[in-house]
């Protein structure tokens, strides 16, 4: 597993490296030792690891992420060798839960859009602008928004490749979004980035002592965004928490309630397959089916 972590480091795949690193760290903590052989990984061992992770109040999706990383490492290390167990991970959770509410309603988005009209350079105003841009640009992920280049924008069309999948996405930029982009470009100090998110001078002393790696700089920007969005959600009395994921899930949810075909939503989000989109929309799909079932029952009962 350590060699896998090093391979990911050499390939510059920092997010994946961090997942494997954290998985191995928690695995060692749960087992109470540093060295764990693949032959020790049994259904009972995995069950105890899952229980330990949940006891640390990690989400089911985080548990699934660690289990899938461990499964991938196990398959690479053991497949085709004596002792390999098929279906070893069948009894632990490796799926994706979609029951966590990450979307807000259209009224909240409207309030955010009205707030974004202020020519303010404060961190909270920028957080609102980035949220609104993410929504207006078809739920673009923050990692893609932050890394947009000036060259990605041509004649009102954004064309870029998603960081997560490498899939090319093309977006006709709405007039309202272009107004925000033009306003924020004025304060941009970087010659290549489209928006003043990355590559900007740092004013905090602890960031002038040591240069940040590109990944560290992005993580710093992401933490700042989420911190300020949380404050905005308190100011708006949303009763929920805004985050970098909210704009994307909200765009998908509103599109779904507007009866947009799932295939169109999937393409709009730049998903690699419709299955990924269905994970976003599953809770709403279940409710639609329940409502349809009620309508059918009412129709039949009234026909008697």
Automatic annotation (TrEMBL):
Phage integrase SAM-like domain sequence ranges: 5-79
Cytoplasm recorded as keyword: no
InterPro entries: DNA_brk_join_enz (IPR011010), Integrase-like_cat_sf (IPR013762), Integrase_catalytic (IPR002104), Integrase_recombinase_N (IPR010998), SAM-like_dom (IPR025269), Tyrosine_recombinase_XerCD (IPR050090)
Alphabetic keyword roster: DNA recombination, DNA-binding
Domain Tyr recombinase: 139-282
Any GO molecular function: DNA binding
GO BP: DNA integration; DNA recombination
Name by which UniProt lists this protein: Tyrosine site-specific recombinase
Protein species of origin: Bacteroides fragilis (strain 638R)
Gene: tsr25
């Amino acid at each position: 597993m350590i060699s896998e972590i090093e391979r990911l480091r050499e390939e510059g795949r920092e997010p994946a490296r961090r997942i494997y690193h954290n998985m191995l760290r928690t695995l060692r903590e749960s087992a109470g030792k540093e060295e764990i052989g693949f032959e020790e990984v049994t259904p009972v061992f995995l069950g105890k690891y899952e229980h330990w992770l949940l006891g640390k109040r990690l989400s089911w999706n985080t548990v699934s992420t660690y289990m899938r990383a461990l499964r991938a490492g196990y398959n690479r290390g053991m497949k085709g060798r004596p002792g390999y167990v098929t279906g070893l991970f069948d009894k632990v959770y490796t799926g994706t839960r979609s029951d966590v509410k990450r979307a807000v309603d259209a009224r909240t988005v409207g309030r955010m859009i009205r707030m974004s009209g202020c020519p303010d350079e404060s961190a909270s105003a920028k957080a609102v602008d980035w949220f609104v841009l993410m929504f207006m640009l078809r739920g673009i992920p923050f990692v893609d928004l932050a890394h947009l280049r000036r060259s990605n924008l041509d004649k009102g069309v954004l064309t870029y490749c998603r960081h997560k999948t490498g899939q090319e996405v093309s977006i006709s930029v709405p007039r309202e979004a272009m107004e925000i982009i033009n306003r924020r470009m004025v304060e941009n100090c970087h010659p290549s980035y489209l928006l003043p998110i990355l590559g900007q001078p740092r004013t905090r002393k602890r960031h002038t002592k040591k240069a940040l790696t590109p990944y560290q700089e992005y993580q710093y920007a992401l933490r700042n965004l989420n911190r300020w969005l949380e404050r905005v959600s308190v100011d708006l009395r949303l009763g929920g928490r805004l985050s970098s994921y909210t704009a994307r899930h909200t765009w998908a949810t509103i599109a779904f309630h507007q009866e947009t075909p799932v295939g169109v939503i999937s393409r709009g989000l730049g998903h690699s397959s419709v299955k990924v989109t269905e994970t976003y929309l599953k809770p709403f799909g279940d409710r639609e089916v329940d409502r349809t079932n009620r309508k059918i029952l009412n129709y039949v009962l009234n026909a008697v």
